Amino acid sequence: MPKMTGPEGRVLETDGPITVKEVLRKWKTAKGAVAAVVNGVAVDLESTLVGDAEVIPIEGDSPRGLEILRHSASHLMAQAVKRLYTGTRLGIGPAIEEGFYYDMEIPAQIGEDDLAAIEKEMRRISKENLPVTREVLSRQEAEKLFAERDEAYKLELISELEGDTITVYRQGEFVDLCRGPHVANTSVLKHFRLLSIAGAYWRGDEKNKMLTRIYGTAFGTKEALEEHINRIEEAKKRDHRKLGRELDLFSIQPEAPGFPFFHPKGMVVINKLVDFWRKEHIRRGYCEIRTPLILDRDLWIRSGHWDHYRENMYFTEIDERPFAIKPMNCPGGMLVYKSQIRSYRDLPLRMAELGTVHRHERSGVLHGLMRVRSFTQDDAHLYVTPEQIKEEILGIMDLVRHIYTDVFGFSYRVELSTRPEKAMGDPKMWEMAEQALQGALEEAGVTFRINPGDGAFYGPKIDFHLEDCIGRTWQCGTIQLDFQMPEKFDISYIGPDGAQHRPVMLHRTVYGSLERFLGILIEHFAGAFPYWLAPVQVRLVPVSEDHREYAEKVSERLKEMDVRVDIDPRDEKLGKRIRDAQLQKVPFMIVAGDREVETRTVAVRDRTKGDLGSMSLEGFLEILTTCFDPLR
Ligand SMILES: [Zn+2]
Ligand SMILES: [Zn+2]
């Protein structure tokens, strides 16, 4: 008798073939399951089991379950589009990170306004209760089926598939070429939303036809869907590209795709970030270097970048000699290390560099400040003895915690990535390094996740993912141990024994890059930078021309105290100027009218607390000194 084994020691003996669904029902694990893993392979609930099997249900709200829900929702959407737009041809429709899409050739111009109608049709199909069934066809049968349906793209995909049989999924009149698994019935799909529409070349190749891509998402519950939609709405409001324009922080121009321009206000924020970074690093025993943007190509051959990273690099020539624009700061840093003989007394040597690097990214993936082709890393390379690794990692982790939590108020999560299969170097070194990293994490009392085999080929690493106020995570800081680069560049230090020894190298960043960190901050604070970062800290609004001279005087006094202040000089109505100062998210606004001029006071409005009333200028300065500022 075939024997089924399941979660928590469940067992079931059957006297003949049985479907997965029946097994789960008997175990009372069917509720919420959208598919199951049978002997390690994900299958439909309706698939039939014949021999012994291990059956694990896939819950709709698990990551794998969500993927199946979303992929099924993409079929549902394609079916709806085909019903509404006769002659639609199907491309591909996968589940993606937070939803799904389907690329289709639709014989009509459609836009975001049409998504509601498609969604409505999807709801109708969901209510039609159509069973979703799997069929295995021969290659000829499949070719005939899709030829009859005029699905040219599917025929192209079939021609590339290997094997004699091809699986398709059917729901009502709709058929799709698909490996599955899928939910068992269209009625399972209830909580979905179509989000946006875009053009996409068939197979991502611009020589091919441009298809219409519709994005959507689906969840197991109404609450989860709503939470996700709210987050998208919130993220849209905070989009750093929109706020960057409104607050006049930066721009991206057609003359330089992927290379941002920073405007005066954006530069204030960047410079404050840098000032703070520098102060904190000096305090923690770092020195600072700067290395060239352009270096001899041979250096990149030696470093291994030529072999592994050439595709992403830019090259140039000077006096007929080949050069490369640096994509990383490490090789330049190495040359500084090698510029003199180092002793064990110099170690640990912590060399920081705000290094601007250039990396080629495809134009399709560029995104505001988050994905660019040129950025400045807050890099540092630490040269240490093997015994110093742990202590130095503890030091870096304390720096990271201080900057993320104390200064910016972010929570973050930590991941340790260990030795990958194609690792280079001595396994003993790897073991020691992994132990040092893990030991440091444990000693620091940090909870962390291990990603086995996810380290770089030259050493294990720790990544820091910070969480912004709407729950999105961003990988920013990283600590990477490197045994390879010191070998390749043959760097050494003289030990107490008078002999040459090889130092271990640590690469690390905290912000990650200034550009991306600024983008994250803009979205995290929704443009309302904390006082110490705000491009303009105080805006003066004189009620009329008569009060202007007094406003100038107040401004002079504030500038003497290093406060960043400006005066709204326009002739506009007072109400409009006050609203504009609010839209610009200036932390403090001072309105100066007759009363203030007469009594030599200022009427202060706090961005968050509202009206603070009238006070003496000295009283206001006192308030400013209580604002958080890590630079003081
Ligand atoms: Zn499919
Ligand atoms: Zn490096």
How does this model look, in words?
With 632 residues, this protein is of the alpha+beta class. The chain is built from 19 helices and 35 strands. The strands form nine sheets. It has an eight-stranded mixed β-sheet. α4 (139-148) runs antiparallel to α5 (152-160), α7 crosses α15 and α12 packs across α13 (427-443). It is globular, with a radius of gyration of 30 Å. The N and C termini lie far apart (77 Å). The protein binds zinc ion (ZN) (2 copies). One zinc ion is lined by residues 71, 75, 169, 176, 178. One zinc ion binds next to β23.
Percent in helix: 25-40%
Shape designation: globular
Helix count equals: 19
User: End-to-end distance, in Å?
Assistant: 77 Å
Please outline the helices and strands.
Elements: E1 3-5, E2 11-13, E3 18-19, H1 20-27, E4 33-38, E5 41-43, E6 48-49, E7 53-59, H2 63-84, E8 89-90, E9 95-96, E10 99-105, H3 115-127, E11 133-138, H4 139-148, H5 152-160, E12 165-171, E13 174-177, E14 191-201, E15 210-219, H6 222-238, H7 240-246, E16 250-251, E17 261-262, H8 264-283, E18 287-288, E19 294-296, H9 297-303, H10 305-309, E20 315-318, E21 321-325, H11 330-337, E22 349-358, E23 374-384, H12 389-407, E24 411-417, H13 427-443, E25 448-451, E26 461-467, E27 473-482, H14 484-488, E28 493-494, E29 500-501, E30 504-513, H15 514-524, E31 538-542, H16 548-560, E32 565-567, H17 574-583, E33 588-592, H18 594-599, E34 601-606, E35 610-616, H19 617-625
Parallel strand pairs: 1-7, 18-22, 24-25, 31-32, 31-33
Antiparallel strand pairs: 1-2, 3-6, 4-5, 4-7, 8-10, 9-10, 10-15, 11-12, 12-13, 14-15, 16-17, 19-21, 20-21, 22-23, 23-30, 24-26, 26-27, 27-30, 28-29, 33-34, 34-35
Helix pairs in contact: 2-3, 4-5, 7-15, 12-13
The structure holds zinc ion (2 copies).
